[in-house]
Amino acid sequence: MISSMGKPYVVGIDIGGTNTVFGIVDARGTILCSGSVKTKAYDKVEDYVTAVCENLLPLIESEGGVEKIKGIGIGAPNGNYYSGTIEFAPNLPWKGVIHLAELFQEKLGIPTALTNDANAAAVGEMTYGAARGMKDFIMITLGTGVGSGIVVNGQVVYGHDGFAGELGHVIVRENGRMCGCGRKGCLETYCSATGVARTAREFLIARSDESLLRHIPAEEIASKDVYEAAVQGDKLAQEIFEFTGELLGEALANFVAFSSPEAIVLFGGLAKSGDYIMNPVKKGLDSNVLNIYKGKTKLLVSELKDSDAAVLGASALGWELKDLKE
Amino acid sequence: MISSMGKPYVVGIDIGGTNTVFGIVDARGTILCSGSVKTKAYDKVEDYVTAVCENLLPLIESEGGVEKIKGIGIGAPNGNYYSGTIEFAPNLPWKGVIHLAELFQEKLGIPTALTNDANAAAVGEMTYGAARGMKDFIMITLGTGVGSGIVVNGQVVYGHDGFAGELGHVIVRENGRMCGCGRKGCLETYCSATGVARTAREFLIARSDESLLRHIPAEEIASKDVYEAAVQGDKLAQEIFEFTGELLGEALANFVAFSSPEAIVLFGGLAKSGDYIMNPVKKGLDSNVLNIYKGKTKLLVSELKDSDAAVLGASALGWELKDLKE
């Protein structure tokens, strides 16, 4: 499927609020070598690009030089695929609209594309992971927030403005929990890691039954604590997962009515909580999905290693790029 | 945009439970001539196809013969684009899976495609109507039920099985109104013509203020009566539209988070109720849509004449077909 045209590698750059990680990746999704810089250390984006390139170029040289690289893919918060820009990203040091893909492309002479983290994850899953060979699927990333990447006819859905696929901000409960986006009842307020912690605090106040979670100060409870308690047989913790999973499944049932995907791929810490989360998700999906879709959509967990996924996802964009002189 | 390759016309066939209407259409969306047969009169699908062809062929001959026709498009309930089949349509006389596109193609020697009514409407709007030149939009058909056709990157979203785009069955109210699909709270139970009538009956029972609608027996109230009362200044009728429109707008806000369309095109009787419905839809959309999408998505009313839209929509599929010998 991947035609390397004598250029066997791509570069993936994952930009986070704290760190930027990059690596050289081959067609099988092996990260041959990687490096990182501190995103926050550079107030000016030009200095940042220079720093990344200074660290990246020796890696590229070690794998045979620039002529071996088919393209560079960048995953970044608020990334716009059409323009290759980062637009008003609240957690990055550079304000306004940043033409980041262009800056890298000019500096290195390698075609460069950019998109947001969740879209990059979807392309990564389609290229190297659980969605290989699929043309229609939805990627849901369950982290601090909830992100999504939607693939239709083998292409990421970017929408008319480049910002499609914000399924974490679909409103799932009328007048529900307050969301960081300023609205109420977004999926993200329930089914992210922070949403799970929020549910834990609510359950602990509303109920009086014993729980291992009562030994942790309420404000410090994290999604991980709930998982560990659930594994130890804690009933309340298990019910937190049931609540979270069923609500997610219910939302997924509505997403299925949109694009009827072959699979929904879940990614992130929560998705690794095994049956505790996946059984209720399946239950929520099956009991809410329209009859004609019943039993047709596979529920999968990402096959990419957590630590590699961001760089792999970004890198996968690189395979789709044309040579600059074409 | 439309390349006719010496074949200047297409045929559109719209299959309804009662009537089948067909016509010859040119590249500007003019219906040159048309005809119809009674769908219900034919227990065997082969007899039905024969009857349609016997009525259609003279029309084709009058416009220069089969060699002038680029393709045939069919809009049908439960139509599957991939297989060209109608599958288990409850309101048609033929049971199971019917290979209808194939039957027409063999009979007439003209390439034939088939999809459901709402997808056909979307292609029609993109080819001849309000969505000309758009690559990303959502068509919502407000009739007895609520249907949808979603276009992404210039292509209808069919999903992995051909059945994507059932936005009328997105659940908008937890434990809401009972739907014909067996589930509760579907958009269709509120925002279809029957949904409006249902809201009218609910409002009339729950409230005691005077209304023109009280002069009509409750079971006989139709969406049209509500519109007429609203036009005459009836407060209760106007509030029924506000309720319906705001709920639709709220649902549209979630759809925008999926595919970030350039426009949402509303079609059907309800969409023709002007400001009574469009103002509340806009209000519901604006007050529920995520910040990054705010003010970006146009809210449009279909530009196709009601009486022509079904045939035009179906016909538009015909332009995308390749010659059988290619």
Any overview of this molecule?
Two copies of one chain form a homodimer. In chain A, strand 9 (137-142) and strand 10 (146-152) form a beta hairpin. Chain A has two domains: 9-125 and 307-318, Nucleotidyltransferase, domain 5 (2-Layer Sandwich); 134-302, ATPase, nucleotide binding domain (Nucleotidyltransferase, domain 5, 2-Layer Sandwich). Chain A has a five-stranded mixed sheet, with helices on both faces. The first copy, chain A, has a five-stranded mixed sheet with strand order 11-10-9-12-13, with helices on one face. The first copy, chain A, has helices at residues 45-62, 100-108, 117-128, 188-191, 193-206, 223-231, 235-259, 275-288, 306-318, and strands spanning 9-15, 19-26, 31-38, 69-75, 79-80, 85-87, 97-98, 112-115, 137-142, 146-152, 155-156, 263-267, 298-301. The model of chain A has no long low-confidence stretch (mean pLDDT 95). By secondary structure, the first copy, chain A, is α/β, with parallel strands linked by helices. In chain A, helix 3 packs across helix 9.
| Average of per-residue pLDDT values of chain A | 95
Number of domains of chain A: 2
Low-confidence stretches of chain A: none
- First and last CA, distance of chain A: 20 Å
Strand content of chain A: 15-25%
Number of strands of chain A: 13
Helix count from the secondary structure assignment of chain A: 9
Query: What structural class do helix, strand and pairing data of chain A support?
Result: alpha/beta
**Which strands sit side by side, in order, in the main sheet of chain A?**
3-2-1-4-8
Instruction: Indicate the percent of residues in helices of chain A.
Output: 25-40%
The radius of gyration of chain A is: 20 Å
Main sheet properties of chain A:
5 strands, mixed
The CATH architecture of the largest domain in chain A would be 2-Layer Sandwich
SSE order of chain A, as H and E?
EEEHEEEEHEHEEEHHHHEHEH
The CATH top-level class label of the largest domain in chain A: Alpha Beta
Oligomeric form of this entry? homodimer
Protein name (chains A, B): Glucokinase
Family (chains A, B): Belongs to the ROK (NagC/XylR) family.
InterPro entries (chains A, B): ATPase_NBD (IPR043129), ROK (IPR000600), ROK_cs (IPR049874)
